[in-house]
Amino acid sequence: MTALTSSPAPCARFVRRLGPHHFAHLRAVAEGLDLAECARRYLGIEHGHEAVTAHQEAIDAVRSVARRRGETAWRLVGLRIQTLSAGQRPPLDDFAAAHGLEGFSEAEVLTLYEEAYPLERKAARSQRLRQRQLELLRRLEGLAAETPQPTDLVAGWFDETTAQRLITAGILTLGALGSHIAAGGVWWRQLPAIGVAKAGRIARHLATLLPHEAAMPKPLFSLSATPSLFRAPAASSPGSTSMSNALVLQDDSHLPFGRSQPSASLLGASSDLEAVQRWVQARAGSPATVKVYQREAARLLLWLQYERGATTLTRMQRNDCSAFMAFLEHIPKPGSRARAAPGTPGWAPFRGALSHASCRQSITIIASLFAWLQSAQYLSANPWLLVNAKSGDDPARKVLDSKALSEAAMMEVLRFVEAQAPSPSRARIRFILLFVEAVGLRSAELLAATLADLRLVPEGGGS
Q1: What is the Cβ-side half-sphere exposure of residue 277, based on CA atoms within 13 angstroms?
Q2: What is the DSSP letter of 333?
Q3: Of 151, 172, 372, 459, which has the maximum CB count within 10 A?
Q4: Cis ω on the peptide bond leading into residue 334 (within 30° of 0)?
Q5: Same domain membership, residue 128 and residue 39
Q6: What per-residue confidence (pLDDT) applies to 16?
Q7: What is the DSSP string of 388-437?
Q8: Of 372, 400, 428, which closes a domain?
Q9: What are the residues whose beta carbons fall under 8 Å from the beta carbon of 40, sequence distance 6 or more?
Q10: CB-based contacts of 136, cutoff 8 Å, min separation 6
């Protein structure tokens, strides 16, 4: 005897809340537009098979409303009405132009048009039926359509699968979803089975649900979590400029830093930004150094602009140096979003709190910038000479923060390598250790080096 096992019934899917976009979709389909395109535009659906399902769900939901409201013509919802082909009757505008009816009223032109091209009985009936269908949809929209709000749960406005993924990631409302999207970066990383394409569909559908919210300028940082990106712990920031403009300053054409300069300057720079660019060009010897120098200088310029009342490099005082050092040691959270480029939503000058080594590096680079600008007579004085520019003076912290090996540690590593059995890998690692110790390459420079980079020089010459 064979036992029959019934498979579990599929989970029922339905439209939980009806919005204006559902009725716009049904009207567009009723007018004869492509179903898949309408579903993509109004319902946020990308794939054809999903479009058919979503379309039927919208029909079922609106028909339920119509039956509850006592609409006897509820079957008209979703009905596909056949129409005449476009070639049987010319467009109304072409008819008016061909017969010189530009000065006639629309009603007069329509009357003459119907007389010249009368509809057959079936076509006329179809046209009247479609008109009834559209009027029914407009009437039901006024009775049942809800306007989505930022406080609405995502479960009511997204399909069941997408809503469940959003809820799993802790995104419960439309407003919360909008905040995640506005933050920029790879905001969808925490969503299971969501990639770039699906994330774009979610964002576009949210813009359909909340068009007014999408049209408003989004804050580039979560002000509720970070009231001020550059807020020092000891005092409130003196700048009151909106941080949404801070990212624009990464564009060279929008950096209004320090327009005045000493007349005796040797740089020919008309702003702090140009002076910094001269310094980078003169002192940076590699692309990696250029990137670091530009980053540290941009951080200082932004901090001066928004936290020190638009102070310029030429007006920077000793207390400004001390305040900037304190700021570096207490970077507020959250930081910049991953993969968010400067000037895009989600970007911030820092990804998070800096280590003691990073603080020391930043201050050292800034101090060297001021020394160079003073030598070039762009600055009349160097305020960094008046402060203790050291950070993290605790010897224990220095040891822990250092990435360099002591001489004793290096000898121990080499001793361990020498104790291994002879092999090509042992010879290779021994050469790498001795080569890096002698030359002092960065890790990136070592990985990028090739045999073509080695050259023989006379003894005593540069390497």
Answers
A1: 10
A2: S
A3: 372
A4: yes
A5: yes
A6: 67
A7: -------HHHHHHH--SPPHHHHHHHHHHHHTSPP-HHHHHHHHHHHHHH
A8: 400
A9: 46, 51
A10: 66, 71, 73, 76, 77
Are residues 109 and 96 in contact, defined by beta-carbon separation less than 8 angstroms?
A: yes
What pLDDT does 273 receive?
85
Each residue of 118-135: pLDDT tens digit? Answer: 666 666 677 778 888 888
In angstroms, the Cα distances linking 175 to 41, 179, 199, 205 are 21, 6, 16, 13
State the amino acid at position 52 in one-letter form: V
Q: 425 is in which domain, residue-wise?
A: 407-453
In a domain, 26, yes or no: yes
328 and 356 together in one domain: yes
Three-state DSSP class for residue 438: helix
- Residues 325, 294, single domain; the answer is yes
Q: Which two tokens stand for residue 204?
A: 């576009």
For the entire predicted model, the pTM comes to 0.41
Phi, psi of 173 (to 5 degrees): -120, 165
Cα-based distances in Å from 377 to 283, 331, 370, 406: 16, 32, 10, 40
Report the helix count and the strand count for the chain, using DSSP H and E.
18, 0
Residue 66 lies in a domain: yes
Q: How many domains does the chain divide into?
A: 4
Q: In 3-state terms, what secondary structure has residue 173?
A: strand
Spans of the chain, pLDDT less than 50 = 1-14, 85-86, 214-263, 394-400, 462-463
